[in-house]
Amino acid sequence: MNIVLVGMQWGDEGKGKIIDVLSEKADYVVRYQGGNNAGHTVVVGEKEYIFHLIPSGILHPGKICCIGNGVVIDPEVLKKELQELEKNGIDFKNRFKISTLAHLIMPYHKNLDQLRETKRKNKIGTTGRGIGPCYADKINRCGIRMVDLLNPRIFSEKLKDNLKEKNEIFKKVYAHPGFNFQKIYRQYLEYGKLFKNYICNTALLLNGTDSKESDILLEGAQGTFLDIDFGTYPFVTSSSATSGGACIGTGIPPVRIDKVIGVCKAYTTRVGEGPFPTEFGEDFGKFMRDKGNEFGATTGRPRRCGWFDAVIARESVMLNGISELAITKMDILDGLEKVKICVAYKYKGKLIKNFPHDFEMLNKAKPVYKEMAGWPNQGDKVITFNQLHPNARAYLAELQKLLKAKITMVSIGSSRKSTIFI
Ligand code: IMP
Q: Are 273 and 354 in a shared domain?
């Protein structure tokens, strides 16, 4: 069974934990888009691991973990993650693979990302990791790929070509001194040596006889509303975070995808700028942010928090072809007197049931809420669905009804064992 796992909101849905749980049943775990703008946190016993690039499936012995062609890689970040695995005694040498076709984040991408952001009138609030400029070069056909690091002549040519144009831009537009060829050339060839044993044609691997008889888990980063096409553009990331991106970003054809599982928080969060109709007011927002420890795993930025938005979640179900739902951080809603679900928006007196594409409408839309009774703190004794408080079960039943997809997992804590399977 080949499963795609996607975030249904604006990222940070707690996909890392669900991926970790599902990895147990998979033979291959593959990342298909994004870069180190993402951060998956997995708690194993006392130890917390944060992954930005390597699939968290690597924590499960024997699983083959791939970084697909759709991912953009900052080699320094990858190097550090591999060192961290080594330090913790996790054996990955024969089961970690990087696509030859994955694009590299270059030093100039990171600077450009940050410089552009400071110049923008309407800031996006990017992670500043060079993601947008790297994908822009990919589409502009001047990107540098993993495979190029294995061929110094080609790498040199491409880097020279890039620096010729980019240094001009840096100097003239941004009053920046530009970049030195030799320094980047040497540093990146070192990365090439370090990664050489892992770089391969992952599409070939994932379509080979062995993998055709295996179970593949394709993990999305970010979330549906950060998708370059379907998200709240321009406040989005630069890749296809929706399930369609899984095929493009791995070379696994659409006919081989068996199921799409959507992950959403029991409420909503987003980092960075952009519309967020169900955002809490300042005080309650701060209260929930602290309660849910809503700070970015990558940048540490405080996340904006709000009620569950069924309008966007329904759109997510449609766009991704989601048949099963994993609801995360349900425990963070414990102890509230009332909980709310946004079932539609109101704009200029009209009821809007579908996600609006008009930016002004989305920005000014007022949420229409269904209010439900809250439930007390449930502690960590709950291990089955029936042990959940009846009001918590009613909340989940309402989500299921609104989204027309089956809830199969509910997470009520950060550890592996705090997951209810339905
Ligand atoms: P970029 O991906 O760094 O270009 O940032 C674009 C937007 O996506 C910003 O609003 C970021 O905060 C947001 N973003 C990127 N990656 C993540 C993520 O993994 N979780 C949540 N937000 C993200």
A: yes
How far apart are the C-alpha atoms of 78 and 87, rounded to whole Å? 14
- 380, pLDDT greater than 90: no
Tell me if residue 40 is catalytic.
yes
Full domain range(s) for residue 170: 103-195
Q: What is the pLDDT of residues 94-149, one digit of tens each?
A: 999 999 999 999 999 999 999 999 988 889 999 999 999 999 999 999 999 999 99
Report yes or no: 217 and 23 within 8 Å, Cβ to Cβ: yes
301 and 163 in one domain? no
Residues within 6 Å of ligand 1 by CB: 10-12, 37-38, 124-127, 129, 131-132, 221-222, 226, 235, 237-238, 271-272
In this structure, the answer to whether residues 86 and 143 fall within a common structural domain is no
Cβ–Cβ under 8 Å, residues 304 and 276: yes
R_g over Cα of the chain: 22
Which residue from 48, 32, 117, 39 is spatially nearest to 88, judged by alpha carbons?
A: 48
Where is the domain boundary, 195, 214, 246?
A: 195
Q: Are residues 183 and 213 in the same domain?
A: no
CATH number at residue 332: 3.90.170.10
Distance 33 CA to ligand 1 centre (A): 12
| Tens digits of residue pLDDT in 265-277 | 999 999 989 999 9
User: How many domains does one find in the chain?
Assistant: 3
Tell me which of 237, 298, 303 to substitute to probe ligand 1's pocket, judged by most ligand atoms within 8 Å of the beta carbon: 237
With beta carbons less than 8 A apart as the criterion, state whether 52 and 39 touch: yes
What is the band of 211 on the pLDDT scale with cuts at 50, 70, 90? confident
How much of the chain exceeds pLDDT 70, in percent?
100
Question: Which of 239, 261, 283 is a domain's end point?
Answer: 261
151 with 97, same domain: the answer is: no
Q: Which member of 20, 40, 109, 113 is catalytic?
A: 40
Burial class (CB in 10 A: 0-12, 13-18, 19+), 176: middle
Statement to judge: residues 334 and 313 lie in one domain: yes
pLDDT in the model for residue 166: 97
